What does this fold into?
Amino acid sequence: MSRSITAFTVLLALPMIVAAQGAPVAPAKPDTTTKVTVGGFVDGYYAFDFNRPANFDRAFTTQPARHDEFNINLAFVEAKLDAPRMRGRLAIQMGTSVQANYAGEPRNGAISGSELARLIQEAVVGTKLADNLWIDGGVFLSHLGMEGFVSRDNPMYTRSFVADYSPYYESGVKATWQATPTVSALLTVVNGWQNISETNSGKSVGARIDYSPSGSTTFSYFNYIGDEAPDSAAHRQLRSYNGVGLKSSLSSQWIVMAEADYGTQGHASGSGTSTWYGGMFTGRFQATPTTALVGRVERFADRDQAVLVTGVADGLRANGVSFGVDVTPQPRVLWRTELRGFQGEKAVFPKRDSGPSKSDAFVVTSLGLTF
It folds into this structure.
């Protein structure tokens, strides 16, 4: 695989994709049903970590990111455009989860870094090339995983380790094809593993396939391949990531979600490969029209710290369990409370008085408003 995937290659491939649809593309017609909507979301929270981190930063999770502090997890305003042959979304954001997720945004040159990048949740424009085929470009939410960046849209308030340690956003171009009523496929070319500013002269590729045999169940496969080394490095660090997922509404009250991921990355020395893996299972029970009970079990292991850097000699290998209660007092208001704990094989969780600990636990409560 060459170090660089050029835009020229993508442009050559697009006509073949369009031709595969069968009928020739008709001349574009003016959109007469264009719809523009404006909205937003605010998620305020308080979390208490029983390890009481000294600097108030919680380790390893991006939501919640702070301990013993009232703060904003995520707030954004958005404008969306929908039309038969074009679409787009612009969302400007702030919050501690934004700061945590964009902290690794690279600075390579004077016009780069997280200062501007972290304000952009999405800035994406799309056009319809043929029946059931769209192409979108810009900064967009990631194609990887079963959980998303916006807390409101996930079955639990916090996000699992497999979500936190795969990209939430990407910068590039993607093609989405609704192959059949039950199968959709996506192909993307992006700058890299959750970065808007470039780190090298190569590009990364990814794909996703969703199969929905019924309206209530979806099976998913998603992947990513890209070089994580800067151009100045002596050796490539090819990262390969694969994941599978399931989301199913078992009844009007029960929803389950599961995911399993496996990743590899070449060592900086040029010899050997690091691996990491993770998985989660989440169940959500709608006990009453306004109250839901949620639980999750998970496992994450990154011995060589390929994607999760602990700051100590040992990589994180831990099991986790979470329990939550969601209350919807009003249609646009969501109050979520969750208790989450971890048990690791090594002492990697920061603890204020006694140094790193093998375990950690916290409780968080959040009040969210959609407008």
Notes: The helical segments are 7-19, 96-101, 114-117, 161-164. The CA atoms of residues 102 and 118 lie 6 Å apart.
